[in-house]
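User: I'm preparing a small set of examples for a lab meeting where we compare how different chains pack in three dimensions. I only have the primary sequence for this one, and I'd like the structure in token form so I can line it up with the others. Please keep the answer compact; I'll paste it straight into my notes.
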Amino acid sequence: MNVGKGLLGEHFAIVQTLPFSDLVPLTEALKPRRWRPVRVRPYPTAEGLKVAAIWYYSVVEGELFDGTAEEVEQHHATVKANGFTAVDVAGYVDENKQVRHVLVLAKAKWDAGTNIDISLHQIIGGKTPIKAPLEKGCARQTYQLYYGPEGQLFTNVVWRHPRSTFYAYRGGRTLWEKEVARVSETQKLLDVSIVAKALANNYAATFQPFNDFTVTEIHGKTLDENLLEWQKPKPDRPASESPLPAMAFITPFRCGTTTQSRSAFPGCPDQRST
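Assistant: Understood. Below is the structure token output for the 274-residue chain.
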């Protein structure tokens, strides 16, 4: 974990600057030890593509799949028949200037009638709405931002049906901080994403009105400061991160009562064996 400015804890593992090429090998190495991925956030740097990622110690089986939009959508449709559903999905531009996507999956049991779906490579800007799945009444679970090879801003989203009340926001840092403070009074922060282009930064956040856990949001710290923060004794686990130079977002969640149907997402702990 030292390679990626990371930390291996008792219940979670996290990296901030891992070379993207090491993501799948590291995930495969952790899998036999019951670690599964829950968040991946690829981002470009002068040294090449890097990734911020989080794994949980878990009895829930998980996996990663990397491919084009068509390959990811086909794979998701195939593995759903085996009980796997999307936990996170992140887009990025590879060394050949092609857009690819990393799909994070978990084999979790959901309440009857629940459906998980994904939207890939949705352009953001102007009056173009983010296209939701055909099934109406879906709520965003994750909301990742990335720039395409031509400089356009895109998003990948994990959706959950049936819909509960949710709130998603995207904008500059000052308004983002105000919105996070305002909405956090009534809803829980589930996911964050940041992308930078020149001096312009885009911040996104997704909230839902859960009541059985609390959230602590930390930002504006250096990568080293984040490591120190995560080493402090607390019953929290990081749930989402999105790094920028000298800045990282981390959302630790502390959960109370849980349901197995929610255990696939970082919002609550997994059902563990003793």
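A couple of notes for your slides: Residues 208 and 250 are 17 Å apart (CA to CA). Helices lie at 23-30, 69-80, 173-183, 223-230.

User: Perfect, thanks.
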